[in-house]
Amino acid sequence: MKVIITGATGFIGGAIVRECFENPKITQILVLSRKPLGEGMPKGDKLTTIIHEDFSTYPPELLEKLAGAEACLWAIGGRAYQFPNVETARKVHVGYVVPAATAFMTALAPKLPAGQKFRFVFCSGAFAEQKQDKSLLFMGDTRRVKGETEKALSDLADSNPDKLEAWSVRPSGVIARDANPLLKIGGKLFAAITADQLARAMVKIALEGHKGGIIENSELLKM
Fold it and tell me: Residue 136: phi, psi to the nearest 5?
C-alpha cells in the first residue's frame, strides 16, 4: 500500500512514519510536511518528503505527486489550549482535515483499481464530542473541535460511499515506549497508549479497514 502521512515531524506522526517504514505491506510513504524530517527518521527509497505549506489547499500539481496513494494517516492536531485560540484549533483540525479528505477522495480515489476506496485515518482523541451543543465539564474546546472534525469526516465518507472510507481513532494519553517509570505509572491511571502502539493500530486500520468508524482507546490497545 502507498500511503500519505501528515504530522510526521511530531511525536505521533514520527511513530507512524517508523511503523510504515518497517511494515512490508506499506510499499511507499509520501510525507506531507512544512519542513524536512529531522535526524533519526528513516531514510530510503521507500520514503519521499513533499514540502507543503498550506494544508487547507491541495493544488493539482501536488495531487499529481500523490497519485497512486491509497490511504492517508493524519496526525496533525493537538489540544485546543496548545493553539492561540479555539478558532485556530478548529482551523488546524476541521479546516485542514476536510479539504484534504475531499481532495484525496476526488483526485486520488478514481485512479485506484475498480471498487477500491481511498482510506483516511484521523488521529482524534479520547472523549471527543460530536454534539457541539452538549455541556462538557472538562476539556470542552478540545473535545468539541475533535468531535466536529470526526463528524465532518464521517459525513463526507457517508456521502461518498463508493470513494471514501474514514476512521477516527481516540487515544487516551500517548507516551513514549521508553518513557520514564514515573510517567508509565501515571499513564496507567488513564490507560495511556504508547506512540508505537497507536501507530501500529492506525497502520493496521489503513491496511485492513475496521468495522466501526470510531475506534476507542481500549480497542486500540488490543490491536
Answer: -120, 140
Put simply, whether the predicted model's pTM sits higher than 0.85 gets the answer yes
Task: Compute the CA torsion angle 205, 19, 198, 139 (nearest 10 deg).
Answer: -110
Which residue is listed with cell 476512521? 167
Residue whose entry in the numeric block shows the C-alpha cell 494519553: 173
Question: What pairs with residue 3 in β-bridges?
Answer: 29, 71
Q: Tell me the C-alpha to C-alpha distance, in Å, between residue 123 and each of 59, 114, 147, 158, 195.
A: 24, 28, 11, 19, 11
According to CATH, the topology of domain 2-179+196-220 is Rossmann fold (3.40.50)
Beta bridge partners of 174: 193
Number of CB atoms found within 10 A of residue 158's CB:
11
pLDDT (tens digit per residue) in 161-213? 999 999 999 999 888 777 666 666 566 666 789 999 999 999 999 999 999 99
Nearest to 124 by CA among 81, 80, 177, 187: 80
For the chain, which residues make up each domain, given as ranges? 2-179+196-220
